[in-house]
Amino acid sequence: MEYVLGSEWEISPAGGATGDAYFAHHNGRKLFLKRNSSPFLAVLSAEGIVPKLIWTKRLENGDVITAQHWLSGRELEPVEMYGQNVAGLLKKIHHSAELLDMLKRLGKKAILPKDILSEILNSLMIDKELRQSHIIKKALDFLEKEEMNVQYDSHVVCHSDVNHNNWLLTDVDKLYLIDWDGAMIADPAMDLGMLLHWYIKKEDWPSWLSLYGITLSEQLLLRMNWYVIAQTVHSIIWYKSKNKEKEVKHWTHYLNQLLR
């Protein structure tokens, strides 16, 4: 990255799965750099959902480097997911016509329940042990039985990983949702289900959803439950493929709780 900014900048890895993110600072200026970010980042910045995009540079090898303001702040604590600021920002994302239009222009199609189920079934084809697991079979029975009952036509931009550590609260109390590599067009129940199941007590779901701007219904409950079960099965499959037994046990236990 030195050849992009100059040798006077101090650059260090910012972590992350891809290894393509960096922090840079020089004379009090601080930047967050990323290699080959999606063009979607520009719209997210314009909408105030991620820290401001400062510049984009295309290198001779075809790589694209983006620079954003590096803001002083912290990730949210799990208990802070109750906040009106979280519900408000997620509502803004789900209702943004600009975000939806950009993903469509980038060639994204809506992810339907049948697509998710098909991906799970294909992944299980190569893991005989998981295919024979009682809890996985029980989850598949539920997903297949309810697939037609969770159809929803109003697709939106979903983040798909609303974990508390992807919410950045700055020192001036500005909230951002970062790490958009998994963005997709889908039923908003995908994001809502994960957030509510992971962080909000069930008796508080109606009040949290009122902050978001909707009323809890039986159909929404079913859709959220369907997506959370599907995501949990997907997590089990992924962690098993990486031989991460601790995580497999954790998500298998969680799946068992969901299916009670």
TrEMBL record:
Protein known as: Phosphotransferase family protein
SUPFAM superfamilies per record: Protein kinase-like (PK-like) (SSF56112)
Coiled coil: none
InterPro entries membership: Aminoglycoside_PTrfase, CcrZ_PhaseVar_Mediator, Kinase-like_dom_sf
Domain Aminoglycoside phosphotransferase: 14-216
